[in-house]
Amino acid sequence: MPADDHPFDALEHQLHMENLSVSPVAENLLVLASDLPVEWPFNKIVEWLRKGNLAADSQERIRLMLDTCKLEIRKHDEEMMKLRDSLDAEHRQAREELLPGLLLDAARKAESTRAKERVKRIGLILANAVTESTPTDADEIEEMMRVAVELSDRDIEFLRELLRVQGSNLQSKDHIPRFEAHQSWEQGWWRSSINPEIDSVFSKLESYGLVARIPPPNNLNISADFQNRYVLLKKGARFATLIREAATSEA
């Protein structure tokens, strides 16, 4: 498919039309910073702002998101051509009208996100939403991008491990039964260890609706010291799918 006809190019053009390359945050912060004391270290901050570094950082993060998204979409060129040809005019137009708004939301989230890996995950979510054959749920994708901004690499590591040990149980079910979830928990790299970090990470994942804490066994003594166990939810499996990179096909 010629580069000019690639579906992602139209989305990127829409982004440029919105003029997101110049962040109003950068402009407003420079104006406000002019009232700061000139003594160290504020003088260095104002100098840094005047050089346009904040705006440059914002552009760099947006570009990283776009490059990640474009690279991922180009892995699916053949599928995208089939998808385009399979849709009738009404559904094709609906998809075309939906995606620019998602791109703009992704750009705004990327602009305000510090960690590069989180920025890349925003791009992956957008790319996977674009390449799916099923209709795109804009509200869901926006929510998934919001979660991607909040989760650290360590959080993702724990989620992916839970997906490894419990994900197959969700392929044919809407939820994992309590007993299965409790038994499969120890198949994770944490085994049966008691570790405060486990609760810290999984409590955070639970707050975003990706996992849920499993009620302790009924016969557990109240004085016993035990590690809380968690079960993967459909939303957690879905999120992990959306941030997954497709394998590059070899010629």
The tally of strands reads 2
Helix percentage range: 55-70%
Task: Record the strand order, biggest sheet.
Answer: 1-2
Strand fraction band? under 5%
Total helical segments: 12
Radius of gyration: 22 Å
Distance between the ends: 17 Å
Structural class by helix and strand composition: mainly alpha
Describe it for me?
The chain has helices spanning 7-17, 24-33, 42-50, 53-74, 77-86, 89-111, 116-131, 138-150, 153-166, 178-185, 196-207, 234-242; strands spanning 211-214, 229-232. The chain has 251 residues and is mainly α. The protein has 2 domains: 3-149, no CATH class; 154-241, Arc Repressor Mutant, subunit A (Orthogonal Bundle), CATH 1.10.10. Strands 1-2 form a two-stranded antiparallel ribbon. Helix 2 packs across helix 3. The longest helix has 23 residues, at 89-111. Residues 1-5 have low confidence and may be disordered.
Topology:
Elements: H1 7-17, H2 24-33, H3 42-50, H4 53-74, H5 77-86, H6 89-111, H7 116-131, H8 138-150, H9 153-166, H10 178-185, H11 196-207, E1 211-214, E2 229-232, H12 234-242
Antiparallel strand pairs: 1-2
Question: In summary, what is this structure?
Answer:
This protein is mainly alpha-helical and 251 residues long. It is 63% helix and 3% strand. A two-stranded antiparallel ribbon has the order 1-2.
Q: Which key phrases capture this entry?
A:
12 helices, 251 residues, Arc Repressor Mutant, subunit A, 2 domains, 2 strands, mainly alpha
